[in-house]
Design a protein that fits this description.
single chain; 31% helix; 7-stranded antiparallel sheet; Immunoglobulin-like; globular; 25 strands; 632 residues
Length: 632
């Protein structure tokens, strides 16, 4: 394919990096296997048995659910299908896309009208269409379907002519930035100038996320109140809104609001995995509160766009922290089941009353549709969009490694087709090797993100020169690259401690967060295989405090590494283990079926000293992640 790219056209602000068209980056190694697991699990089969995505869907002309679930599914199915070159999945996606494109209303409206069964029914709701537009843009990039952009233009013309008559409301009022993203996408591909006027109109009708994050008014856990301003997924989507709008406004207040969003959500609701709590609504700092799966994948999408728009490597650091921890943690290893809410300290997944802000008793079990079906429809975008965003185009005509994972990127640079193969076990290992596949010597700049957490990184160039890049910045190498060239980047990973709420500590190594390995007893509680619902009960103790040397934390841990296998995000397949001394804390027990508040550190214990094992957070479906520290 020709990896054309589209920087922002004036008067939009220039992009720091341009997202490459879908298909330019292909996953390899363990990452491709992870996408294959996804395709062989719920993502590749859910439409075969889940009624909301069946042939009766309103998005296929039926009388069934016709709101967000079909578009959500397509937003993840399209990139999954094309990244795997899976003809079966491509055909599934085309069934939906063909119906949408072939049944556009004469007015320009795409898809069904608002589902009349929904509360607050109105004739036209742009919110679910904005999700379908994201699926259409990816489909067009991968297939060059000539129908997609004219259909989008007709839909936006409908909004131009009728937005005052059918204004944004409810969810669409809070999620306006997703609609604007597609407007900018179309404008950059030769769309009409009136599209930008429409974007301003949409922004004027939308919720003010810049004010929301810069004058943050929600420092405490939300109690027993359904409020769209504190809704966890709205906030995860809203993080990108000021940055998206900065492209049109050039207003520094919008750019600063992105940083305010991250700082305030971390300060009041943050978790060590990079996400924030929200067991439907913002829920505070306690590690027994939950975070909804929809919020995880939408936060990732926000960061993928923000690093493109603003170019801050810290956004990619956080993207990896979320993608390699919070994302896999909320799925069963075979990806046939998922959670609605995950907990950082999660010692029992069962149907029980917990201290959620506004969720049901089955929210943290693994299953087909725990709590509510939005995550069942929306979870599919996480892994594919991460893979597609590993590499981006630079304004200077080169390529940038934004996040790391085994992959191949192909693009037209300097009049030549260039492919770079990334060979790595990252995030489990610290070596990244880039191999250049070229037909002829080609000059272009290569930009590499150096994570903020690393110490002493080393970059070895094809001529043998060794550079010492700066952590937390981008390193650019500009030279003539020749066929067969390779370079290596070493990003040293050592165990580190992060201080958490109540004086607790969390353990990290590179982008990975580590959790206590707890024995897991999976019990089927309802449904049928392979898409059944499961409780997970502990078979080993979990209430430990760690014995640490805070002055030399890395010396407190033994590290065991093994090759990355077929299921790295499983307890049995965890490629990295840390061993550390610990004592049990008998007074630390369950409170309302969750691990109780972490005892204040330092804490004493008369129990025998033991060696416990920590594994990657994403591999541990039961876990303690925030530990008290022993007095010794």
């Amino acid at each position: 394919m020709s990896a054309s790219f589209y920087p922002n056209r004036a008067p939009l602000a220039p992009l720091a990096f341009s997202l490459l068209p879908l298909g330019s980056v292909k996953p390899l190694g363990w990452l491709r296997r992870q996408l294959r697991i996804q395709a062989d699990g719920l993502s590749g089969h859910i439409d075969e048995f889940w009624p909301d995505l069946g042939l009766d869907s309103g998005w296929l002309g039926g009388s069934g659910e016709g709101w967000e679930r079909g578009p959500y599914y397509l937003d993840g199915l399209v990139p999954l299908a094309y990244l795997l070159d899976d003809e079966r999945l491509i055909a599934k996606a085309r069934t939906w896309l063909d119906w949408v494109l072939e049944n556009q209303h004469d007015s320009g409206w795409l898809g069904p009208r608002q589902d009349p069964r929904l509360a607050g029914h109105r004739d036209y709701d742009p919110w679910p269409v904005s999700v379908m537009l994201k699926a259409l843009t990816q489909h067009q990039e991968a297939s060059d379907d000539p129908r997609a952009m004219p259909a989008m233009t007709r839909f936006f013309a409908f909004l131009r002519d009728h937005l005052d008559e059918y204004p944004l409301f409810s969810w669409g009022q809070f999620r306006w930035a997703d609609l604007v993203l597609s407007i900018f996408w179309l404008f950059n591909r030769g769309g009409e100038p009136w599209l930008l006027d429409l974007a301003w109109h949409i922004r004027d009708q939308g919720y003010d996320w810049t004010d929301h994050f810069s004058h943050f008014r929600f420092p405490a856990k939300t109690l027993d109140k359904f409020d769209l301003t504190t809704h966890v997924v709205n906030n995860a989507m809203g993080i990108k809104a000021p940055g998206v709008w900065f492209q049109a406004s050039y207003d520094e207040a919008d750019r600063h609001a992105v940083y305010d969003a991250l700082a305030n959500l971390d300060r009041y609701h943050g978790q060590v995995t990079g996400v924030f709590t929200g067991d439907e609504h913002l829920a505070g700092l306690e590690p027994y509160q939950g975070t909804e799966l929809c919020a995880v994948v939408e936060y990732m999408f926000s960061l993928e766009n923000l690093v493109s728009i603003l170019g801050d490597p810290a956004f990619a650091d956080r993207l990896e922290r979320i993608a390699y921890n919070a994302l896999p943690a909320t799925f069963s290893p075979d990806m046939w089941a998922h959670q609605y809410d995950q907990q950082a300290n999660q010692v029992l997944c069962s149907i029980a009353k917990r201290d959620w802000t506004y969720n049901f008793d089955d929210s943290n079990i693994f299953g087909l549709e725990p709590n509510f079906g939005c995550c069942t429809a929306n979870m599919h975008q996480g892994w594919p969009k991460l893979a597609a965003s590993l590499w981006m185009r630079t304004p200077s005509g080169g390529l940038a490694a934004i996040a790391y994972g085994p992959s191949r990127v192909t693009a037209e640079l300097g009049g030549s087709t260039v492919s770079i193969v990334e060979e790595t076990g990252y995030p489990f290992g610290d070596m990244v090797r880039l191999r250049f596949e070229l037909n002829e010597a080609t000059s272009f700049p290569l930009t590499l993100r150096i994570p903020g957490w690393c110490e002493g990184p080393e970059l070895v160039l094809p001529d043998g020169r060794t550079l010492s890049p700066v952590c937390g910045e981008f390193e650019t190498v500009e030279r003539s690259w020749r066929p067969g060239d390779s370079l290596s980047l070493r990003l040293p990973m050592r165990p580190r401690l992060e201080r958490r709420h109540r004086g607790a500590v969390a353990v990290t190594r590179g982008p990975l967060v580590f959790s206590l390995r707890i024995g897991e007893d999976w019990r089927q509680v309802r449904g049928e295989l392979p898409h059944a619902d499961w409780e997970v009960h502990p078979t080993t103790p979990w209430n430990y405090g760690l014995l640490l040397d805070p002055a030399r934390p890395a010396q407190s841990f033994g590290v065991t590494a093994r090759p990355v296998g077929e299921h790295p995000f499983s307890q049995e397949g965890a490629p990295i283990e840390l061993r550390v001394a610990a004592r049990q804390l008998p007074e630390w027990g369950l409170v309302r079926k969750s691990a109780g508040p972490v005892p204040e550190s330092p804490v004493g214990s008369g129990e025998p000293l033991e060696e416990v094992t920590l594994i990657p957070y994403g591999s541990a479906k039961l876990r303690i992640t925030e530990f008290p520290v022993l007095q010794e």
